[in-house]
Amino acid sequence: MKDHSCCEDGKNLKNQEPTDIVGGVSYTCPMHPEIQQDQPGMCPECGMALVSQKSKVNSRKSEHGEHDKHAGHSTEQFLKKFWVSLVLSVPVVLYSDFASQILKIEAPEFPGSRYLPFILGSFVFFYAGMIFLASAWREIRAKLPGMMTLISLAITAAYLYSVFVTIRGEGETLFWELTTLVTIMLLGHWIEMRAVKGAQGALKELSKLLPDTAEVIRGGEQKIVPLSELKEGDVVFVRPGGRIPADGIVIEGKSETNESMITGESALVPKKENSEVIAGTVNGDGSLKIKVTKVGDHTFLSGVMRLVREAQASKSKLQILSDKAAYYLTVVAIASGGLSFILWLLAKAGFDFALERLVAVLVIACPHALGLAVPLVASISTTMAARNGFLVKNRLALEMARSIDVVLFDKTGTLTKGEYGVTDVWLSKSKSENDLIQIAAAVDFHSEHPISKAIVAEAKKRNLKIDSVADFKRLPGKGGEAKLDGRRILVGGHAILENNFNLSSDIKSKTEIEADKGKTIIYVLENNELLGVLGLADVIREESREAIQALKAMNVNVAMITGDSEKVAEWVAKDLGIDEYFARVLPGEKSEKVKLLQSKGSKVAMVGDGINDAPALVQADLGVAIGAGTNVAIESAGIILMKNDPRDIVKIIRLSRLTYTKMIQNLFWATGYNIIAIPLAAGALWNQGITLAPAFAAVLMSLSTVIVSVNAAFLRKRSL
Length: 720
Known about the structure:
By secondary structure, the protein is an alpha+beta fold. The chain is 46% helix and 17% strand.
């Protein structure tokens, strides 16, 4: 038997004895009891909901107190029983009145052949039908009658009546209806469980990302250890093409990593000394030595898995609605079936016909597809979200996204990079932009100031050589000074200019305009002559422009909030095409601005990444946190972006709208046919020669399940 990994931290669970973990409660998979954990969630092996082991009744309910109709079942179990039932149903049908009267097929007679349907039908009922009877008993004990109860009532009524007819020796049995009904129901449930298992496989796929072992360096020696023995502070060696075993920081080596399974970003991410790496990502062509900073529950991957599990366990309003509809449909089915049975008896249509109508109504009204309609779409959408770079903490949040009409972005770190960058270059005596930046970077290379680092970064971005300088001096409050090839170079702000220094009217005008926008102006002088001027500002993300254009195309308004000055906010808003912005907003006032937008009747999505954003994220109708941001912001939000890309907000809204549409479609396919089917099954058109046999009712009911499953699967093919 293969080892199983806990969906929380990847620890090996082979041969682990079931134990009560916290407060006498543990959670286990019905099909893989060796998998144990102290929190509810999904089995990483088969995707089924883990069930509580606190008591016999609770072990058959989900963490929300709802009955799990597939507790103790497996897809293989349903498939095996289906084939056995199908094979045995063939002779039952051939020796039935249906075959002789309708199909005009006469099966060969032999001594005792009239008892063949009874023998085979009984085997099908007890072998294949018992799976429904046991589930129905659990539903009744949990006081949550549902589709298993309906199925059990239908097959039990058909079986007991057929046994009675067989013993009496006269009348038409319902064995062929019974066996075909059980066969079709088994097929329908097998299709459902396969669909759910596939949709809820996100945790299983994520658990596969972690390697089983790690190559750790201890005492100067390299050795292979199980992943569970890895500790914070260990140094691990990752070979080319290997998976990174834990979150950490590169202390030696240079390579690229594939983080697509974690962030949804297909481009390889360069890694060098001091770069952070994520557990489960794949190393490229270089070797890396990594100092482990997080293991087990604390890794980024474990956090992702926890969020996926929470999302799969949460419910949307439509799912809650469908659960209620399934319950009421069960009540309607039992009432309608019972009423039709009594009315046909009173009409003297015969006990056989009345019972057949009862069975047909119970079968056709089974809320089988209804129980699958919303959860299947929700599971698929949760998996799609993770693959597209964002995590749904709560499905209500994803459902709300379709109604959002205003997205409020925090400026710094969200719309902008939160770091300085060169935005403008004005030449005076310098030969070219590259020449000016190369000279400035040579001096600033020796400074730790953020402005200096931005100029050096710009030089590297342009692949410029950074020359060596002599006699570097930091000029407090002004900038820096050094000698480059014997020339005295000064790089700094306005204070670096001497009192009698005259700027040309053109440069003076341009720098004043940009300074009013909140940009930092840096002058570069050579022997007291101005070579040129650099303008720096918090760099606007190019992704922000695409995101805002896409949101406007979706008729969603965009607003911005920042603690920066009015002029800076105005410049960024104008550059990005944002109509409404809030400037000089103190940290405690951000939630008030959200309330202001809500007071105008808007449904507001707040996007932020800092501790200061947490109250606003909670106040907003939809809180979206940047995954690279603080834990406080992440815990306050309903959806987490795994990478800092505003375009993912567009994906969230698109997925929400697609999900809602699919859910509505599935609810229609799952329930709409009942409006016509239940009266037909009850015999409303009997006088016109139209009746619905129980087996055909089962076909229609199962067909609706197939349609719902296929329709939900189409969601996977939609691009965001």
